[in-house]
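thoughts on these tokens:
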Amino acid sequence: MDKMLYVSMTGAHNNTLAQRAHANNLANISTNGFRRDFEQARSMPIFGDGYPARVYAMSERPGTDFTPGSMQETGRDLDVAIGGKGWMAVQAPDGTEAFVRTASLNVDALGVLRTGNGLPVMGNAGPIAVPPEQKIEIGKDGTISIRALGEAPRVLAEVDRIKLVNPDLKQMEKGTDGLIRFKGNGPVEPDATVEVTSGFLESSNVNAVEEMTAILSLSRQFELQVKMMRTAEDNSAAMARVLQMT
């Protein structure tokens, strides 16, 4: 009886964790550049002093879906997205290097080029600093060019270049903060073949229908687990009555 109760209890608990993962995907369907998390469940044996006759269910995130989202035109010069394969380097809040596929850029009061959520954009030698300017242009190769204050329209000066990389996706992982990082050894070297498209943002790769279907399926599984626990309780009560009769 305790085996049945334990299996159903762990199953219900992990159904809840799985629903949380799919709900997070669904909540970020409109977040530009978001990469959905995969989710799966498997049975794990319980090892101890005796024979491992009991198992429990475990929900886990085996990886991240790196399929690109669709390109959405904004017409804003500082809205950029990677065209094809590759990533843009940014500086995470903990100081490490992270990577994004798209960003709505802006220049803060100190002249630092940042993403829409405040992360500094990395250049050839660290975060990119932009001098006072009238206009900023971003080339396909990531080059940052500006028209300085008081200069003629055709006078442009190159300031820096966004660090563009194209590492093996097998070496990329998504952290708890939602940022993508390289898990290999050493820094990621720039790749000259990666191109930036200005005036576009990349949408999330979340499929709303798939996520809703998964959530509904997990809800039914949760109800089944609860029914199993109630059945175990009824069977225990029936056994107790039989023992009282004897």
Q: What stands out?
A: The first helix runs from residue 2 to 27. The helical segments are 2-27, 208-245. The chain has a mean pLDDT of 88. The chain is about 25% helix and 30% strand.
